[in-house]
Each structure stands twice: as structure tokens, then as C-alpha cells.
Amino acid sequence: MGGVLRRGRARRGPGGLRPRPRRTRSRILAVGMLDSPTLVRMTVAPDAFQDEDLARRLVKDFSLPERGVLPEGAVSIEAPLGLLLHDLLSKEGWGVDEPWTPLFRDLTEPVEDPGVRIKSIGPEQAQDFADVLRSAFNTSRPTREYWHAMSAGPFYADARCLGAYDDQGSVAAVVTVWSAGPEKPGLVEPMGVHENHRGRGYGRAITVAGAAALREMGSSSVRVCTPSSNVGGVATYKAAGFKVRPEVRDRIRTA
Averaged in consecutive runs of 10 residues, what is the pLDDT profile of the chain (255 residues)? Predict the structure, then answer.
């Protein structure tokens, strides 16, 4: 997740992270970080998912602005499924946001050939990288500076940026994959296909290439999460060998 935060400018303190630990006398039970001033991403130790005292303290941390975690007004929390926290937030009137679909691919076995020409994206291709992402996500951002800011971050040492090329030598699709180290899951973020090349298998190909790069770096698996409404994106990841996991939703407070 750190790789995602480092794609743009730092948001909160050193490295763009602001941890919010909840600890016992001997160990930390819960941690969170602010992805933006109104969005906290958090998790809990596996054996504390149903810890009622911890869950009640977290609800106060997230609900009361004076606790210094989230401000007043509309805010969001990303938290794993199965936490008692969800039940308590519902009782406090928190709602749920639009569903997202997590997908996962095991990297124990060798990854198949992507079937198209794949090349590393470097400084000379920064504009091509930005052009593909702008087209893929129908936005005026990012610019070529996006790639330079992303690659300048400390986490990029364990990342790879790849492009899939068509027969004319144009970049048809791009992906950045982030390794968390040997024997740990890797992450796809972002992946996009230029609108002029959709429906030709480039999304599957670049995703497969990203998975292969992560396996070479020692990752045990690769994960991605996309809005469930992105039917084409989910289909692309499934075509690249990813398995669908249960949908997840952020918890939201609208006022």
C-alpha cells in the first residue's frame, strides 16, 4: 500500500504516512494511516478482530474529531471484513460506500508468456505512460511528472513499470507493480489500457507481465482491488488468472 501513497506527493508527514497505533502493554493491536485527511485505512491483529474493548476504542477514535484522527463531516474508513468494529460503526449510524472487488493470483507456479512485446517504462517513456493512463481513466491527469514523482519515491526500488506495445511500436497498455519483499504479496497499481487498444487483449497481457515481474522479485502472490462497477476491469484481471475475493466496502459517515 505504501507504493500507492508514494505515487503522488507526500500527504501526511515523512513518507506520506501517519500511523495511528492502538497498543497493549506488549504489542500493537491496530494500526491505521491517513490516505487523505478524510480517509483512514486500518487493520487489526488477526486475534483481535472480535476484541470488544479495542473495537469500542476505535469507534471513538474515528468518530470524535478531538481524538485527532478524522475531522468533522464526511469521512471514510477502509477496514478488513470480519471486524467487530463494523457492527459497532453501524450502530453509530455509519453507512457503507460503493463495493470494490479484491482479486488475487498465486505466484507459486511460473507465469505464462503475455503474448505481446513488453518493455520497461523509464524516464524516456514518462509521457507515453501518462498518455495511456489519461486515456484509460478518462482524466486530464496524470502528466509526465507523475511518473517522475512516482519513481523518485523510496518504495520504487521494489517496483517495476512496464508497457505493452502494439505492432507499430506504440504503448498500448501500462502497469506498475509493487513488491513488499520476498515471500510477501505484491500489488498492481495502476494498470490501464489506451482507449485505442481496448478489446484486443492488452489489459490481460500487461497484467500477466506485471505478475511475472513480481514473481521474479520473489513475491508470493499479486493482489489488486477495483470498483465492482468496473466490470471490464474485473473481467481483465480474471482473464489474467486472478481469482475474485468477496466484495469490500468502505465505511462512510456522510455528515
Answer: 36 39 73 92 94 95 93 95 96 95 97 96 94 92 88 91 95 96 93 95 97 97 95 96 96 91
33, 41 Cβ separation under 8 angstroms: yes
Kindly provide the b/e burial profile for residues 164-201, where b requires at least 16 CB atoms within 10 angstroms of the residue's own CB: bbbeeeebbbbbbbbbbeeeebbbbbbbbbbeebbeeb
Burial 139-154 (b: 16+ CB within 10 A, else e): eeebeeebbebbbebe
Per-residue DSSP letter, 196: G
**Alpha helices (H) along 95-137:** 126-137
d(CA 209, CA 202): 10
- pTM strictly above 0.85: no
Q: Which three cell numbers stand for residue 238?
A: 480474471
- Residue 187 contacts residue 4 (beta carbons within 8 Å): yes
